[in-house]
Amino acid sequence: MSSHSDAVFRRIVLVRHGESTANLEHTLTGRMDSELTSGGLRQSRRAARYICRRIEPVEIIYSSPLKRCRHTAQIIAQHMRRRHRIKADLEEDDLLLETDFGSWEGKGREDLISNPEWEHYVRDPFHFTFPGGESPQQVKERVEYFLQKLLSNKDRCTVVVVTHYTPIAFLVLHVMGNVEGNGAPFAIDNGSVTVLQITDTGGYIELLNCIP
């Protein structure tokens, strides 16, 4: 069995996309595309500058294919190119998509509070299956598979991953040892940077929800 000292760590720099128009509207937005707001653009630039200053250069950025993540990832890649003269590859991966909210997509609390399923959702949001959509537990399965793919690539020790709240929450919970994914006792804000050090057998949180 490998000891902690000889384990090979993968450094995963998680970035939640900048504020989107849907975030401003406080709606459940999983698979719908929404643009970054002017504030979201500023958040993305600050996250990019922070990563370029504080994190070793990376050659690949993984991103959810949705526009709000792609745009954030492109801003990070542009800063990498300007500061480090490195052209970071940008690879989209469906495993990093946000929860599919089904028929609740695009709706806010005021639209759903009279729905008989609302109380079930509020009581246990991490195990609620959205009508016509998916449960966050399915997101958990997706991001764990994504993590396995990252760990199997021995050539890359540091990667940037631009994604949404739920995938980031489950990756952090994985490191915390919360295998059931029953809830997230932490915030993941728009434009925040979270850094995980992960091995095949465990890991630790280096930085959580840093807002540059």
| Number of continuous helical runs | 7
Structural class estimated from helices and strands? alpha/beta
CATH level 3 topology: Rossmann fold
Number of strands: 6
Radius of gyration (Å): 17 Å
* Element-level helix/strand string: EHHEHEHHHEHEE
Residues in helix, %: 25-40%
CATH superfamily: Phosphoglycerate mutase-like
Mean model confidence by pLDDT: 90
Largest sheet features: 6 strands, mixed
CATH class: Alpha Beta
Pick out the low-confidence regions. Answer: 1-5
* Total discrete domains: 1
How large a portion of the residues is in β-strands, by DSSP E?
Answer: 15-25%
Task: Walk across the major sheet and give the strand order.
Answer: 3-2-4-1-5-6
Q: So what's the overall shape?
A: globular
Indicate the CATH architecture: 3-Layer(aba) Sandwich
The gist of it:
The protein is of the alpha/beta class.
What do you see in this structure?
The chain is α/β, with parallel strands linked by helices. The protein has a single domain (10-210), classed as Rossmann fold. The protein is 37% helix and 17% strand. The protein has helices spanning 21-25, 38-54, 67-84, 109-112, 118-123, 136-152, 165-176; strands at 10-16, 60-63, 89-92, 158-163, 193-198, 203-210. It has a six-stranded mixed sheet with strand order 3-2-4-1-5-6, with helices on both faces.
